[in-house]
Design a protein that fits this description.
Strand content: 5-15%
Strand order of the largest sheet: 3-2-4-5-6
Distance between the termini: 75 Å
Shape: globular
CATH class: Alpha Beta
Structural class: alpha/beta
CATH architecture: 3-Layer(aba) Sandwich
Number of strands: 7
């Protein structure tokens, strides 16, 4: 009996190892190929005798915090005019939004961070854990600094892939009362290909991704292997989900994308070897893929959704 259990554990570990190796080897290839509840309304009106809300003249009504995916950012990039990767997915969303709204209405801040993922093809790069930590710290610091200077500015969070993990972790902190800004100031979040996607947590505006979940949840039982290969801790589901932001957080995932829709069973991942190889291109096609959100593409849907959130935000007087 003991030997049979040991063989079962070994099979699970080997299956997980195959899936992880495929992930870290394939990630470079796919990157190289490149119905939600509305956010808070106009807010409570001042009571008679109370002063009108106001804040400094350089404060926007809304700040969009965008966190790019792996290899789509640099720690030295300009957060207000990113140029590190002109065809980065989020730029198909943030560039049109920046053109549509004036800086006093919407400030677009694209988090500049190292955005790397050490793997056998890129052994010189920093580990995923270190990259994710840097992105999280820079994103959190930006929100805290803006809120300190602009107490009535509201926020929209946006992230893709590694950036979706970071933006989703921020939404988790804020929604559970542990974030750098109050939950009632976050108008909404959009997470594209979130590696910590959990079915039923957040709202899916697209076609159902099926019965899978984020890679970081599926591989959590064998996180020691992922740490060895890629310096990547598989962090599992987010405790508390999105809290108060549950109905304001969009989870967008193609059912064929194993980054956000991995098998529930680790061993099944090894059995789906060919499917993973075919999946490589899917993760890089969110900009044009017509099969994620019916009748539109992810950038077009996100543009419309964020525009609705910004248009519904209150105009704050400047002093």
């Amino acid at each position: 009996m003991a030997r049979r259990n040991g063989g079962r554990r070994l099979g699970c570990s080997l299956g997980a190892l195959v899936l992880v190796v495929l992930l870290v080897l394939g990630i470079g290839w796919w990157l190289g190929n490149r119905g939600l509840t509305p956010g808070p309304g106009e807010g409570p009106l001042p009571l008679p005798g109370e002063p009108e809300l106001s804040q400094p003249a350089d404060c926007p009504d809304v700040e969009l915090l965008a966190v790019p995916g792996t290899w789509e950012s640099s720690p030295t990039d300009d957060p207000h005019a990113p140029s590190f990767l002109p065809n980065a997915l989020l730029r198909t969303i943030t560039d049109p939004l920046a053109e549509k709204y004036g800086d006093d209405r919407l400030e677009v801040f694209t988090v500049p961070y190292v955005a790397q993922f050490r793997n056998p093809q890129r052994p010189q790069e920093i580990p995923y854990d270190q990259s994710r930590h840097e992105g999280m710290e820079r994103a959190r610091a930006e929100l805290a600094a803006t809120h300190d200077h602009c107490p009535h500015t509201s926020y929209v969070l946006l992230g893709f892939s590694q950036g979706a993990v970071i933006a989703g972790d921020l939404a988790n902190e804020i929604g559970t009362g542990n974030g750098p800004v109050p939950a009632d100031l976050v108008r909404g979040s959009v997470l594209i290909a979130d590696g910590r996607r959990q079915p039923g947590v957040g709202v899916s505006p697209g076609l159902s991704p099926g019965n899978g979940q984020g890679m970081e949840i599926s591989l959590q039982p064998v996180t020691g292997i992922t740490e060895l290969i890629a310096g990547a801790t598989m962090t599992g589901p987010r405790p508390g989900g999105f809290g108060e932001l549950q109905d304001r957080t969009a989870q967008i995932c193609d059912s064929r994308d194993l980054i956000c829709n991995a098998p529930l069973n680790v061993v099944d991942g090894a059995a789906r070897f060919q499917e993973f190889l075919a999946n490589n291109a899917i993760h890089a096609l969110y900009a044009t893929n017509p099969d994620v959100i019916e009748g539109t593409t992810v950038p077009d849907w996100t543009l419309g959704h964020v525009s609705e959130l910004v248009d519904a935000a209150p105009e704050i007087a400047h002093n």
